[in-house]
Structure formats: structure tokens, C-alpha cells
Amino acid sequence: MSNFFTFKTAKNKDHLLSSVENERDHVGINLSNKTIYKQLELIQLTIEDLMIIRTLQPLVSQHLEEIVEQFYANLAKEQSLMNIINDNSTVARLKKTLTNHIFEMFSGQLNDAFVKQRSIIAHVHVRIGLEPKWYMCAFQDLLLSLIDMIDQHTVTKEEFKKSVSAVTKILNLEQQLVLEAYELENERIRNEAEEQKQLMKQEVSRNAEELAAVSEETSSSLQAILQKTQEINRLTDSSSNIAISTEAKSKDGQNRLINLEKIMLDTQLNMKKISKRNGTTHFDF
């Protein structure tokens, strides 16, 4: 038997399970999820086991503080677990939560509320990043603490065996429900991530198509701009040629006028010379 701690209460002289039949009307199994009934059958958890668990509840309540203290003393050995706790809550707050949770576990009632609470626990564990292996380790420590408690309060071997068997079954069911919820939550997250991945692929594909369309439109625009530029260049060249031709013609006309003026001046000089020689009247042009 483990020696994690010593309970303050010595072994009772009375049989621990002497009043177990009194709990028959206070326990029950009422689940909408029919698969869980098969799980109960496989681990052989019966109404009689729930009666024993219900009978143990007052004893568990007496030693809850010691059990919870031992639970978190063991967690403190793994620094990564303490980091998770400190990042998301406080040890004091979680101790209170665990105290309520363990007490409720020994209610002897298996119903949809019981299952829902285990699902909530799993969702929180996934959210804060607590790996299933650490959850399993923590529950093994809790089981050993409960076995220690039962050992110190049972009189006969048969009583001890029945009590430990019932407690082991309810903790086993607890782990099944939480780990299944773990997997469902992780699957939901994976599916959500896959959906986001597909949406991203579609968005990238749509953006690529839009970019291709814009690129094609831009290419057409550039082609049109190039054509306009070529037209402007042709017009510019044509204008330049006209200007050059006009300038040449202008210079040619100017030269013709200069020549004509020179001819007229030469003619006038010649006429004056002739007039002087002949003694005729002088005409000015």
C-alpha cells in the first residue's frame, strides 16, 4: 500500500459498508448517451458499486483537504504543470474546484450533468494546453490517495476490496469520459483548422484569378498606351518633317527675293549708266 500521507483518523471499529443498503434509493444511472451504458457494462460498474461510492462520500468529505493537498504537492514536482496553472489560474482556486469535483464524483448519480461536467473539464484542459498524460498521472495520484484512505478505514479484506473496486471503476469512467471529450475537442479544433486552411486556399485561388485578370487588363492597357505612343511619335516625326520642309521653303523664297532685289538694283544701275552716256532724261525706278 502506498504511503503518500497518513490520515488523521484511525481505523473505525464499525464496518465501513455496514449501511450500504441505505443508499439504494439515493443512487441511479440515467444517461441519454446509450454508448456509456456499454462502457459501464465493460468495466462492470453497477448500482451496487454506486451504493458503495455513495457510502464513502462522507469519509471522502472528511479527508478532502488532505487528498487535495497531496494532489497539488505531487503536481508541484513537474514545473511545466505549475507553469500551466500559474498562467491560467491559481493553486488556491483550483484546490477549491478539485474539492467540489471529487465530492460530486462520489454522489452515486450517473446522469447527463455528470457527463457534461467531464466534457467541460476536457475542454478547459485542451484550452490551457494540459496534455492527457499529465491528466492521467494526476488521476493515478488521486486513486492512490483514496486507496490509502480506504485502507485506514476498512476492517475486513472483503470490505477493502469492494471499496477499492468501486472507487477504481468510478475513476476509470471519469477518465474515459474526459479523454473521449479530449479527443472530440481536439478533433473539432483539427476540423476547424482544416476548414480555415481550405478557406485560405480558396481565398488565395480567388486572389490569384483576380490578379491574373488585372494583369491581363494591365497588359491590354499597356499595349494600348504603346500604340498611342507610337502614333504620337509618328505625328511628331511628321510634324518635324513638315517644319523642316517649311523652313527650307521659307529660306528658298527668301533667297529668291534677295536675288530678285539684286537684279532690280543691277538693272537700275545699268539704266543710269546708259542715260549718262546718251544725255537722256534720268528715270528713277
UniProtKB/TrEMBL annotation:
InterPro entries noted in UniProt: Globin-like_sf (IPR009050), Globin-sensor_dom (IPR044398), Globin/Proto (IPR012292), Protoglobin_sensor_dom (IPR039379)
Under the heading Gene3D superfamilies, the entry gives: Globins (1.10.490.10)
Q: What is the lineage of its organism?
A: Bacteria, Bacillati, Bacillota, Bacilli, Bacillales
| CDD domains on file | globin_sensor
Annotated Pfam families? Protoglobin (PF11563)
- Superkingdom as given in the UniProt entry: Bacteria
Which keywords has UniProt assigned to this entry? Coiled coil
UniProt GO MF annotations: heme binding; oxygen binding
Protein name listed in UniProt: Methyl-accepting chemotaxis protein
Q: Where is the Globin-sensor domain?
A: 34-187
Where are the coiled-coil regions?
172-210
